[in-house]
Design brief:
461 residues; alpha+beta; 14-stranded antiparallel barrel; two-stranded antiparallel sheet; 8 helices
Protein backbone atom coordinates (compact mmCIF):
# COMPACT_ATOMS: atom_id res chain seq x y z
CA UNK A 1 0.00 0.00 0.00
CA UNK A 2 1.44 3.38 -1.00
CA UNK A 3 1.90 5.89 1.85
CA UNK A 4 2.69 9.62 1.65
CA UNK A 5 3.42 12.15 4.43
CA UNK A 6 1.00 15.09 4.25
CA UNK A 7 1.78 18.23 6.26
CA UNK A 8 -0.94 20.65 7.35
CA UNK A 9 -1.93 23.11 10.10
CA UNK A 10 -3.03 21.76 13.49
CA UNK A 11 -6.74 22.39 12.85
CA UNK A 12 -6.59 20.66 9.51
CA UNK A 13 -4.64 17.77 11.02
CA UNK A 14 -7.22 17.31 13.72
CA UNK A 15 -9.98 17.17 11.11
CA UNK A 16 -8.11 14.63 9.05
CA UNK A 17 -7.21 12.47 12.02
CA UNK A 18 -10.77 12.48 13.34
CA UNK A 19 -11.90 11.19 9.97
CA UNK A 20 -9.23 8.52 10.21
CA UNK A 21 -10.25 7.60 13.74
CA UNK A 22 -6.98 8.91 15.32
CA UNK A 23 -6.81 11.02 18.44
CA UNK A 24 -3.49 12.87 18.19
CA UNK A 25 -3.86 16.63 17.71
CA UNK A 26 -0.41 18.00 18.57
CA UNK A 27 1.53 16.72 15.58
CA UNK A 28 1.48 18.56 12.28
CA UNK A 29 1.95 15.59 9.93
CA UNK A 30 0.64 12.07 9.68
CA UNK A 31 1.15 9.07 7.47
CA UNK A 32 -2.05 8.31 5.55
CA UNK A 33 -2.50 5.61 2.90
CA UNK A 34 -3.28 7.11 -0.52
CA UNK A 35 -6.69 5.43 -0.73
CA UNK A 36 -7.69 6.90 2.63
CA UNK A 37 -6.31 10.31 1.66
CA UNK A 38 -8.63 10.36 -1.35
CA UNK A 39 -11.61 9.62 0.89
CA UNK A 40 -10.53 12.30 3.39
CA UNK A 41 -10.15 14.91 0.62
CA UNK A 42 -13.59 14.12 -0.80
CA UNK A 43 -15.27 14.20 2.63
CA UNK A 44 -13.51 17.44 3.51
CA UNK A 45 -14.76 19.00 0.28
CA UNK A 46 -18.37 18.02 0.98
CA UNK A 47 -18.02 19.21 4.58
CA UNK A 48 -16.96 22.68 3.41
CA UNK A 49 -13.30 22.25 4.42
CA UNK A 50 -12.12 23.39 1.00
CA UNK A 51 -8.54 24.32 1.93
CA UNK A 52 -7.96 20.96 3.60
CA UNK A 53 -9.44 19.12 0.64
CA UNK A 54 -7.24 21.04 -1.80
CA UNK A 55 -4.10 20.52 0.29
CA UNK A 56 -4.59 16.76 0.38
CA UNK A 57 -5.56 16.59 -3.31
CA UNK A 58 -2.52 18.61 -4.39
CA UNK A 59 -0.28 16.33 -2.36
CA UNK A 60 -1.85 13.31 -4.05
CA UNK A 61 -1.24 14.89 -7.46
CA UNK A 62 2.41 15.46 -6.52
CA UNK A 63 2.65 11.66 -6.24
CA UNK A 64 0.53 10.88 -9.31
CA UNK A 65 -0.46 13.74 -11.70
CA UNK A 66 -3.09 11.41 -13.21
CA UNK A 67 -4.93 10.68 -9.95
CA UNK A 68 -8.46 11.25 -11.27
CA UNK A 69 -10.10 11.41 -7.84
CA UNK A 70 -7.68 14.10 -6.71
CA UNK A 71 -8.20 15.99 -9.97
CA UNK A 72 -11.95 16.03 -9.34
CA UNK A 73 -11.42 17.45 -5.85
CA UNK A 74 -9.25 20.22 -7.31
CA UNK A 75 -11.77 20.83 -10.12
CA UNK A 76 -14.57 21.31 -7.59
CA UNK A 77 -12.61 23.02 -4.82
CA UNK A 78 -10.16 25.33 -6.55
CA UNK A 79 -12.85 27.70 -7.94
CA UNK A 80 -14.22 28.11 -4.39
CA UNK A 81 -10.72 29.12 -3.26
CA UNK A 82 -10.34 31.69 -6.06
CA UNK A 83 -8.23 29.46 -8.32
CA UNK A 84 -10.75 28.81 -11.10
CA UNK A 85 -8.11 28.32 -13.81
CA UNK A 86 -6.48 25.55 -11.77
CA UNK A 87 -9.89 23.93 -11.30
CA UNK A 88 -10.66 24.11 -15.01
CA UNK A 89 -7.36 22.51 -15.98
CA UNK A 90 -7.88 19.75 -13.40
CA UNK A 91 -11.41 19.10 -14.69
CA UNK A 92 -10.23 18.89 -18.29
CA UNK A 93 -7.51 16.41 -17.28
CA UNK A 94 -10.05 14.35 -15.29
CA UNK A 95 -12.29 14.25 -18.38
CA UNK A 96 -9.41 12.92 -20.48
CA UNK A 97 -8.73 10.21 -17.88
CA UNK A 98 -12.39 9.16 -17.57
CA UNK A 99 -13.35 5.70 -18.74
CA UNK A 100 -17.15 5.78 -18.52
CA UNK A 101 -19.87 8.20 -19.61
CA UNK A 102 -20.82 8.88 -15.99
CA UNK A 103 -17.24 9.87 -15.23
CA UNK A 104 -17.04 12.09 -18.32
CA UNK A 105 -20.33 13.77 -17.42
CA UNK A 106 -19.11 14.56 -13.90
CA UNK A 107 -15.79 15.95 -15.14
CA UNK A 108 -17.33 18.00 -17.95
CA UNK A 109 -19.79 19.72 -15.63
CA UNK A 110 -17.08 20.55 -13.09
CA UNK A 111 -14.90 21.97 -15.87
CA UNK A 112 -17.79 24.09 -17.11
CA UNK A 113 -18.43 25.41 -13.61
CA UNK A 114 -14.78 26.39 -13.24
CA UNK A 115 -14.90 28.18 -16.61
CA UNK A 116 -17.97 30.12 -15.45
CA UNK A 117 -16.02 31.21 -12.35
CA UNK A 118 -13.33 32.53 -14.73
CA UNK A 119 -16.10 34.30 -16.68
CA UNK A 120 -15.05 32.32 -19.73
CA UNK A 121 -18.64 31.68 -20.72
CA UNK A 122 -18.02 30.49 -24.27
CA UNK A 123 -15.61 27.84 -22.99
CA UNK A 124 -18.16 26.86 -20.33
CA UNK A 125 -20.74 26.36 -23.09
CA UNK A 126 -18.31 24.08 -24.91
CA UNK A 127 -17.92 21.87 -21.81
CA UNK A 128 -21.67 21.79 -21.19
CA UNK A 129 -22.14 20.58 -24.76
CA UNK A 130 -19.65 17.80 -24.03
CA UNK A 131 -21.60 16.96 -20.88
CA UNK A 132 -24.80 16.68 -22.92
CA UNK A 133 -23.23 14.00 -25.11
CA UNK A 134 -22.81 11.72 -22.07
CA UNK A 135 -25.71 12.76 -19.81
CA UNK A 136 -26.79 9.65 -17.86
CA UNK A 137 -30.54 10.31 -17.98
CA UNK A 138 -33.23 12.75 -19.11
CA UNK A 139 -33.26 14.58 -15.77
CA UNK A 140 -29.55 15.35 -15.96
CA UNK A 141 -29.87 16.30 -19.63
CA UNK A 142 -32.62 18.81 -18.80
CA UNK A 143 -30.54 20.17 -15.93
CA UNK A 144 -27.54 20.72 -18.18
CA UNK A 145 -29.70 22.38 -20.85
CA UNK A 146 -31.03 24.81 -18.20
CA UNK A 147 -27.50 25.56 -17.04
CA UNK A 148 -26.40 26.15 -20.63
CA UNK A 149 -29.25 28.62 -21.09
CA UNK A 150 -28.14 30.50 -17.99
CA UNK A 151 -24.54 30.63 -19.22
CA UNK A 152 -25.74 31.94 -22.59
CA UNK A 153 -27.62 34.78 -20.90
CA UNK A 154 -24.55 35.71 -18.84
CA UNK A 155 -22.17 35.56 -21.77
CA UNK A 156 -21.45 38.96 -23.40
CA UNK A 157 -20.50 37.00 -26.51
CA UNK A 158 -23.26 35.28 -28.47
CA UNK A 159 -22.12 33.07 -31.33
CA UNK A 160 -24.25 31.08 -33.74
CA UNK A 161 -23.42 28.89 -36.68
CA UNK A 162 -25.36 26.53 -38.85
CA UNK A 163 -25.62 24.93 -42.22
CA UNK A 164 -28.36 23.69 -44.48
CA UNK A 165 -28.66 21.55 -47.59
CA UNK A 166 -31.62 22.51 -49.77
CA UNK A 167 -32.67 20.56 -52.88
CA UNK A 168 -34.74 22.86 -55.10
CA UNK A 169 -36.46 22.87 -58.47
CA UNK A 170 -35.30 26.47 -59.00
CA UNK A 171 -31.90 27.21 -57.47
CA UNK A 172 -31.30 30.21 -59.73
CA UNK A 173 -34.68 31.96 -59.46
CA UNK A 174 -35.31 31.34 -63.16
CA UNK A 175 -38.50 31.59 -65.18
CA UNK A 176 -41.01 28.81 -65.79
CA UNK A 177 -41.70 29.82 -69.40
CA UNK A 178 -39.59 30.26 -72.50
CA UNK A 179 -41.42 33.38 -73.64
CA UNK A 180 -39.85 36.73 -72.87
CA UNK A 181 -43.39 38.00 -72.29
CA UNK A 182 -46.94 36.89 -72.92
CA UNK A 183 -48.38 40.17 -74.13
CA UNK A 184 -48.61 39.06 -77.73
CA UNK A 185 -46.61 42.03 -78.96
CA UNK A 186 -43.16 40.75 -78.10
CA UNK A 187 -42.13 37.13 -78.49
CA UNK A 188 -38.90 35.22 -78.20
CA UNK A 189 -37.02 32.73 -76.09
CA UNK A 190 -34.99 33.03 -72.93
CA UNK A 191 -31.46 31.73 -72.62
CA UNK A 192 -30.92 28.40 -70.90
CA UNK A 193 -29.53 29.99 -67.72
CA UNK A 194 -32.58 32.29 -67.42
CA UNK A 195 -34.89 29.31 -67.00
CA UNK A 196 -35.48 27.50 -63.69
CA UNK A 197 -32.65 25.06 -62.99
CA UNK A 198 -32.81 22.10 -60.62
CA UNK A 199 -30.07 21.51 -58.11
CA UNK A 200 -28.94 21.66 -54.50
CA UNK A 201 -28.02 24.76 -52.52
CA UNK A 202 -25.74 24.36 -49.50
CA UNK A 203 -25.55 27.26 -47.05
CA UNK A 204 -23.12 27.89 -44.20
CA UNK A 205 -23.69 30.80 -41.82
CA UNK A 206 -21.72 32.18 -38.91
CA UNK A 207 -22.60 35.05 -36.61
CA UNK A 208 -21.08 36.50 -33.48
CA UNK A 209 -22.27 39.38 -31.32
CA UNK A 210 -20.65 41.16 -28.37
CA UNK A 211 -22.66 42.97 -25.71
CA UNK A 212 -20.35 45.86 -24.76
CA UNK A 213 -22.86 47.75 -22.61
CA UNK A 214 -25.78 46.69 -20.45
CA UNK A 215 -27.88 48.17 -17.66
CA UNK A 216 -31.24 47.31 -16.16
CA UNK A 217 -32.99 49.23 -18.95
CA UNK A 218 -30.84 49.03 -22.06
CA UNK A 219 -28.00 47.28 -23.84
CA UNK A 220 -25.75 47.81 -26.85
CA UNK A 221 -24.12 45.17 -29.06
CA UNK A 222 -21.79 44.97 -32.03
CA UNK A 223 -21.99 41.97 -34.34
CA UNK A 224 -20.59 40.23 -37.40
CA UNK A 225 -22.47 37.89 -39.72
CA UNK A 226 -21.34 35.88 -42.75
CA UNK A 227 -23.28 33.57 -45.01
CA UNK A 228 -21.91 31.53 -47.90
CA UNK A 229 -24.18 29.71 -50.33
CA UNK A 230 -22.96 27.26 -52.95
CA UNK A 231 -24.99 25.59 -55.69
CA UNK A 232 -24.57 22.29 -57.45
CA UNK A 233 -26.73 22.04 -60.56
CA UNK A 234 -28.40 18.74 -61.29
CA UNK A 235 -27.16 19.01 -64.87
CA UNK A 236 -24.49 21.45 -66.04
CA UNK A 237 -25.42 20.88 -69.68
CA UNK A 238 -28.64 22.33 -71.06
CA UNK A 239 -30.24 22.99 -74.41
CA UNK A 240 -30.43 26.58 -75.57
CA UNK A 241 -34.17 27.09 -76.28
CA UNK A 242 -33.35 29.67 -78.92
CA UNK A 243 -31.00 27.58 -81.05
CA UNK A 244 -31.30 24.02 -79.78
CA UNK A 245 -27.53 23.90 -79.26
CA UNK A 246 -26.05 22.43 -76.05
CA UNK A 247 -24.95 25.00 -73.49
CA UNK A 248 -22.44 24.46 -70.68
CA UNK A 249 -23.54 25.86 -67.33
CA UNK A 250 -21.30 26.59 -64.35
CA UNK A 251 -22.65 25.92 -60.85
CA UNK A 252 -20.29 28.56 -59.49
CA UNK A 253 -22.23 31.26 -61.34
CA UNK A 254 -25.01 30.91 -58.76
CA UNK A 255 -22.93 31.02 -55.58
CA UNK A 256 -23.25 33.95 -53.18
CA UNK A 257 -21.48 35.49 -50.19
CA UNK A 258 -23.10 37.87 -47.73
CA UNK A 259 -21.14 39.88 -45.15
CA UNK A 260 -22.62 42.20 -42.51
CA UNK A 261 -21.32 44.23 -39.57
CA UNK A 262 -23.98 45.53 -37.16
CA UNK A 263 -24.37 47.96 -34.28
CA UNK A 264 -27.57 47.61 -32.22
CA UNK A 265 -29.13 49.39 -29.25
CA UNK A 266 -32.20 48.14 -27.34
CA UNK A 267 -34.04 49.92 -24.55
CA UNK A 268 -36.83 48.68 -22.34
CA UNK A 269 -39.62 51.24 -22.06
CA UNK A 270 -42.64 51.33 -19.77
CA UNK A 271 -44.73 49.85 -22.58
CA UNK A 272 -42.45 47.61 -24.55
CA UNK A 273 -39.04 47.66 -26.20
CA UNK A 274 -37.37 50.03 -28.67
CA UNK A 275 -34.54 48.86 -30.90
CA UNK A 276 -32.24 50.78 -33.26
CA UNK A 277 -29.80 49.12 -35.64
CA UNK A 278 -27.12 50.14 -38.12
CA UNK A 279 -25.75 47.60 -40.64
CA UNK A 280 -23.10 47.82 -43.33
CA UNK A 281 -22.01 45.03 -45.62
CA UNK A 282 -21.69 43.56 -49.05
CA UNK A 283 -23.24 40.92 -51.29
CA UNK A 284 -21.27 38.97 -53.91
CA UNK A 285 -22.88 36.81 -56.57
CA UNK A 286 -21.21 34.32 -58.87
CA UNK A 287 -17.84 35.06 -57.31
CA UNK A 288 -18.05 38.75 -58.23
CA UNK A 289 -18.97 41.83 -56.15
CA UNK A 290 -22.64 42.70 -56.70
CA UNK A 291 -23.48 45.53 -54.30
CA UNK A 292 -22.53 47.18 -51.01
CA UNK A 293 -25.19 48.34 -48.60
CA UNK A 294 -25.92 50.55 -45.59
CA UNK A 295 -29.04 49.95 -43.53
CA UNK A 296 -30.77 51.82 -40.72
CA UNK A 297 -33.56 50.04 -38.84
CA UNK A 298 -36.04 50.87 -36.09
CA UNK A 299 -38.08 48.26 -34.19
CA UNK A 300 -40.81 48.78 -31.63
CA UNK A 301 -42.86 46.23 -29.69
CA UNK A 302 -45.82 47.21 -27.49
CA UNK A 303 -47.73 44.73 -25.30
CA UNK A 304 -51.43 45.56 -25.63
CA UNK A 305 -52.35 42.90 -23.08
CA UNK A 306 -50.78 39.80 -21.55
CA UNK A 307 -51.36 37.64 -24.64
CA UNK A 308 -51.41 40.34 -27.36
CA UNK A 309 -48.31 42.08 -28.73
CA UNK A 310 -48.09 44.83 -31.36
CA UNK A 311 -44.84 45.13 -33.31
CA UNK A 312 -43.67 47.68 -35.88
CA UNK A 313 -40.42 47.83 -37.84
CA UNK A 314 -39.04 50.29 -40.36
CA UNK A 315 -35.88 49.93 -42.40
CA UNK A 316 -34.10 52.18 -44.88
CA UNK A 317 -31.41 50.61 -47.04
CA UNK A 318 -29.02 52.12 -49.55
CA UNK A 319 -27.49 49.78 -52.15
CA UNK A 320 -24.53 50.71 -54.36
CA UNK A 321 -24.14 48.26 -57.24
CA UNK A 322 -20.73 47.37 -58.54
CA UNK A 323 -22.13 47.50 -62.08
CA UNK A 324 -22.29 51.16 -63.09
CA UNK A 325 -25.28 50.40 -65.29
CA UNK A 326 -27.32 49.56 -62.19
CA UNK A 327 -26.21 52.58 -60.16
CA UNK A 328 -27.78 53.08 -56.74
CA UNK A 329 -31.03 52.02 -55.08
CA UNK A 330 -32.78 53.31 -51.96
CA UNK A 331 -35.26 50.91 -50.41
CA UNK A 332 -37.74 51.46 -47.56
CA UNK A 333 -39.36 48.49 -45.82
CA UNK A 334 -42.15 48.93 -43.25
CA UNK A 335 -43.82 46.04 -41.42
CA UNK A 336 -46.45 45.96 -38.69
CA UNK A 337 -48.36 43.15 -37.09
CA UNK A 338 -49.95 41.51 -34.09
CA UNK A 339 -48.94 38.40 -32.18
CA UNK A 340 -51.31 36.52 -29.88
CA UNK A 341 -50.17 33.89 -27.39
CA UNK A 342 -52.76 31.30 -26.38
CA UNK A 343 -53.05 29.82 -22.89
CA UNK A 344 -51.27 26.66 -23.96
CA UNK A 345 -48.33 28.64 -25.38
CA UNK A 346 -49.22 28.42 -29.09
CA UNK A 347 -48.72 31.68 -30.95
CA UNK A 348 -50.64 33.21 -33.88
CA UNK A 349 -49.21 36.22 -35.75
CA UNK A 350 -50.23 38.37 -38.68
CA UNK A 351 -48.01 40.86 -40.50
CA UNK A 352 -48.58 43.50 -43.19
CA UNK A 353 -45.54 44.79 -45.07
CA UNK A 354 -44.80 47.42 -47.68
CA UNK A 355 -41.61 47.99 -49.67
CA UNK A 356 -40.82 51.13 -51.66
CA UNK A 357 -37.76 50.83 -53.88
CA UNK A 358 -36.34 53.76 -55.86
CA UNK A 359 -33.41 52.93 -58.15
CA UNK A 360 -31.44 54.44 -60.99
CA UNK A 361 -32.84 51.72 -63.28
CA UNK A 362 -36.46 50.64 -63.79
CA UNK A 363 -35.82 47.06 -62.65
CA UNK A 364 -34.95 48.40 -59.17
CA UNK A 365 -37.93 50.78 -58.91
CA UNK A 366 -41.12 49.20 -57.59
CA UNK A 367 -43.77 49.04 -54.87
CA UNK A 368 -44.62 45.84 -53.03
CA UNK A 369 -47.35 44.81 -50.58
CA UNK A 370 -47.40 41.59 -48.56
CA UNK A 371 -49.55 39.92 -45.94
CA UNK A 372 -48.43 36.92 -43.89
CA UNK A 373 -50.00 34.68 -41.25
CA UNK A 374 -47.95 32.44 -38.96
CA UNK A 375 -48.73 29.83 -36.32
CA UNK A 376 -46.28 28.07 -34.02
CA UNK A 377 -47.11 25.18 -31.70
CA UNK A 378 -45.63 25.42 -28.20
CA UNK A 379 -45.57 21.66 -27.65
CA UNK A 380 -44.41 19.02 -30.11
CA UNK A 381 -47.00 17.06 -32.03
CA UNK A 382 -45.78 13.59 -31.26
CA UNK A 383 -42.00 13.79 -31.68
CA UNK A 384 -42.15 16.78 -34.07
CA UNK A 385 -42.19 20.52 -33.33
CA UNK A 386 -44.09 22.53 -35.91
CA UNK A 387 -44.51 26.12 -37.10
CA UNK A 388 -46.32 27.29 -40.23
CA UNK A 389 -46.52 30.50 -42.22
CA UNK A 390 -48.14 31.56 -45.48
CA UNK A 391 -48.77 34.80 -47.27
CA UNK A 392 -49.49 36.71 -50.45
CA UNK A 393 -47.38 39.31 -52.24
CA UNK A 394 -48.03 41.89 -54.97
CA UNK A 395 -45.36 43.93 -56.77
CA UNK A 396 -45.81 46.77 -59.28
CA UNK A 397 -43.10 48.19 -61.55
CA UNK A 398 -44.34 51.35 -63.24
CA UNK A 399 -41.81 51.04 -66.06
CA UNK A 400 -40.44 47.93 -67.71
CA UNK A 401 -38.59 47.94 -71.06
CA UNK A 402 -40.44 44.94 -72.54
CA UNK A 403 -43.95 45.93 -71.47
CA UNK A 404 -45.82 49.18 -72.24
CA UNK A 405 -48.05 48.49 -69.22
CA UNK A 406 -45.18 48.04 -66.80
CA UNK A 407 -44.60 44.87 -64.86
CA UNK A 408 -47.05 43.42 -62.33
CA UNK A 409 -46.35 40.33 -60.21
CA UNK A 410 -48.75 38.52 -57.90
CA UNK A 411 -48.20 35.34 -55.94
CA UNK A 412 -48.19 33.42 -52.71
CA UNK A 413 -45.56 31.85 -50.51
CA UNK A 414 -45.46 29.42 -47.60
CA UNK A 415 -43.09 27.82 -45.14
CA UNK A 416 -43.30 24.71 -42.93
CA UNK A 417 -40.69 24.29 -40.20
CA UNK A 418 -40.28 20.87 -38.61
CA UNK A 419 -38.00 20.00 -35.71
CA UNK A 420 -37.21 16.89 -33.72
CA UNK A 421 -36.36 18.21 -30.21
CA UNK A 422 -35.86 14.74 -28.76
CA UNK A 423 -33.12 13.98 -31.28
CA UNK A 424 -30.25 15.98 -29.86
CA UNK A 425 -26.47 15.76 -29.75
CA UNK A 426 -24.30 18.23 -27.81
CA UNK A 427 -27.21 20.65 -27.72
CA UNK A 428 -27.81 20.56 -31.47
CA UNK A 429 -31.05 19.33 -33.02
CA UNK A 430 -31.95 18.60 -36.66
CA UNK A 431 -34.65 20.52 -38.51
CA UNK A 432 -36.35 20.47 -41.87
CA UNK A 433 -37.87 23.46 -43.65
CA UNK A 434 -40.18 23.25 -46.63
CA UNK A 435 -40.58 26.51 -48.52
CA UNK A 436 -42.50 27.25 -51.66
CA UNK A 437 -43.70 30.16 -53.77
CA UNK A 438 -45.67 30.72 -56.94
CA UNK A 439 -45.59 34.01 -58.84
CA UNK A 440 -47.60 35.05 -61.88
CA UNK A 441 -46.42 38.04 -63.91
CA UNK A 442 -47.60 39.84 -67.02
CA UNK A 443 -43.99 39.52 -68.16
CA UNK A 444 -43.45 35.82 -68.74
CA UNK A 445 -39.83 35.66 -67.61
CA UNK A 446 -40.94 36.54 -64.07
CA UNK A 447 -43.58 33.83 -63.81
CA UNK A 448 -41.87 31.49 -61.39
CA UNK A 449 -42.51 28.50 -59.20
CA UNK A 450 -40.18 27.36 -56.47
CA UNK A 451 -40.20 24.42 -54.05
CA UNK A 452 -37.31 23.74 -51.67
CA UNK A 453 -36.76 21.22 -48.90
CA UNK A 454 -34.00 22.25 -46.52
CA UNK A 455 -32.20 20.26 -43.84
CA UNK A 456 -30.36 22.13 -41.10
CA UNK A 457 -28.91 21.80 -37.62
CA UNK A 458 -29.95 24.25 -34.89
CA UNK A 459 -28.73 24.90 -31.36
CA UNK A 460 -31.06 24.14 -28.47
CA UNK A 461 -29.59 27.10 -26.52
Amino acid sequence: MQVHRISRAVKATSFALILCGAGVEAQTSVDIPVEEARVIATRALFAGETELALQIARSLLAIDPDDRDALLVVAAGAPRAGAAAEGRRAGARAFALSRTDDQRYEAARLTALAAVNEERFTLATFWLRRALTVAPNEEERARTLRDAGGVRRSNPWSTTFGFSIVPSNNVNGGADKNEVDDLGTLTGNLSADALALEGVRATLNFGTKYRFYQSERDRATVGFYYQAARVQLRDETAEDPRTGDPVELDSGDYSSDYLQVSLNYDRALQNGVLGIGLDVGSFDYGGEPYYDFRRLSLNRSIPLSDPLLLFVSARREWQNFDNDNLGETMRTNVRTGLSYKFDGGDRLSGTIGRVLSDGDVSSQTFEEWSFELGYSFAEPIGPVSLSLSAGVKKSDYEFYPLSPDGRHDEGYFYSINLGVPDVEYAGFTPAMTITGSDTESNVGRFTRNNLSVGFSVNSAF
